[in-house]
């Protein structure tokens, strides 16, 4: 029986690489994307669809989660809060969306159970991330146990995080090795036409390409 994996695919560089790694491991992919009121929602959705087309994914879900804009508390979902552009903050940054990955993984688990999948892939990065508590190895281990306790006995899911201990330049190099079309991905927190180049996500991405001695081919306002 063919292995099946649900891949949480935002359209960003990390989740895209994780999805291509799932394909490289021989999984049939079920792609899941979340529209949660983020500033770059339309651009991320375009990236998701472009990547699904490149991967020839037939089974995909586009899930709307409107309540994140209701609770606010994050610069990604509340436009009254400015996205930081002065470098990485200490502690948990204002771009953290409360328990986002926990909610994403819960919904993805329901889909995986319905689809009889064996694994969930998520492109969390602990080593070189922005300090989000739901991107850590400890969190993934804990929620893996929880979802397997809270699902049918016949459902046995592994959460696979192939990028969790990689640095951004290693992610770029791995993506190039697997011929991942990074030009289709989108990472900017602020803009949808040209990446701003100054938000935390753009800074991490650009620094990764620089350290990997490679050129990022998406358009930037500032590079």
Structure explained in plain terms:
ATP binds at residues 9-19. Pfam families: QueC. Its cofactor is Zn(2+). The chain contains seven helices and five strands; from the N terminus they run E-H-E-H-E-H-H-E-H-E-H-H. By secondary structure, the protein is an alpha/beta fold. It has a single domain, classed as Rossmann fold, CATH 3.40.50. A five-stranded parallel β-sheet has the order 3-2-1-4-5, with helices on both faces. Helix 1 (13-24) packs across helix 6 (168-177). The radius of gyration is 17 Å and the shape is globular. It starts with a strand and ends in a 12-residue tail after the last helix.
Q: Please tell me the overall pLDDT.
A: 95
CATH H-tier superfamily:
HUPs
Q: What is the C-alpha radius of gyration, as a whole number of Å?
A: 17 Å
What's the number of helices?
7
Regarding CATH, which class?
A: Alpha Beta
In which range does the helix fraction lie?
25-40%
The total tally of domains equals: 1
Condensed summary:
The chain is an alpha/beta fold.
List key phrases describing it.
alpha/beta, Rossmann fold, 7 helices, zinc, ATP-binding, zinc ion binding, nucleotide-binding, EC 6.3.4.20
């Amino acid at each position: 029986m063919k292995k099946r994996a649900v891949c949480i695919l935002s359209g960003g560089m990390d989740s895209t690489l994780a999805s291509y790694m799932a394909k490289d491991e021989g999984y049939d992919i079920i792609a899941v994307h979340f529209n949660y009121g983020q500033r770059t929602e339309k651009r991320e959705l375009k990236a998701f669809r472009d990547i699904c087309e490149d991967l020839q994914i037939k089974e995909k879900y586009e899930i709307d989660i409107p309540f994140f804009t209701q609770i606010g508390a994050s610069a990604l979902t509340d436009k009254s809060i400015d996205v930081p552009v002065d470098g990485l903050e200490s502690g948990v940054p204002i771009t953290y969306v409360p328990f986002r990955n926990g909610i994403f993984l819960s919904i993805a688990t329901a889909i995986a159970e319905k689809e009889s999948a064996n694994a969930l892939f998520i492109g969390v990065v602990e080593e070189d991330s922005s300090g989000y508590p739901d991107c850590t190895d400890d969190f993934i281990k804990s929620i893996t146990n929880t979802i397997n306790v809270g699902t049918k006995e016949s459902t046995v899911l592994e959460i696979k995080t192939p990028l969790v201990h990689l640095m951004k330049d290693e992610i770029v190099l791995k993506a190039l090795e697997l011929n991942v079309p990074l030009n289709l991905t989108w990472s900017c927190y602020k803009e949808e036409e040209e990446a701003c180049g100054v938000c935390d996500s753009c800074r991490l991405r650009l620094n990764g390409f620089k350290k990997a001695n490679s050129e990022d081919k998406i358009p930037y306002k500032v590079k």
